[in-house]
Design a protein that fits this description.
The protein has a 3-stranded antiparallel β-sheet with strand order 1-2-3, with helices on one face. It is elongated and about 50 Å long. The chain has helices at about 5-10, 45-70, and strands spanning about 15-20, 25-30, 35-40. It has 2 helices and 3 strands. It is an alpha+beta fold and about 80 residues long.
């Protein structure tokens, strides 16, 4: 996998991961990122799966965005938010 500036910026964002114990193991999701949810038999597995889910959601959102602006005259710039 090639790391881009986008990946490095996203790595600096703090997310709120929520883990819920259920009979089958753990459900997990990111409060700030709709669609980033998963499960695991153990908490460690749920954490690992959630990292993958976040990466997949961000990649899918990026692809959808690129498709929607393909051929358009756009300005693309980096947005850096101050630490909370």
């Amino acid at each position: 996998m090639v790391t881009t500036g986008y990946d490095l910026i996203m790595a600096g964002i703090s997310w709120t991961a929520v883990y819920m114990k259920v009979p089958e193991g753990y459900l997990a999701f990111i409060e700030e990122l709709p669609g980033a949810n998963t499960q695991g038999q153990t908490l460690a597995e749920a954490r690992a799966n959630l990292e993958e889910a976040v990466a997949m959601v961000l990649a899918a959102n990026r692809e959808l965005s690129e498709e929607s602006i393909r051929g358009a005259d756009v300005i693309r710039e980096t947005l850096v938010l101050p630490a909370a």
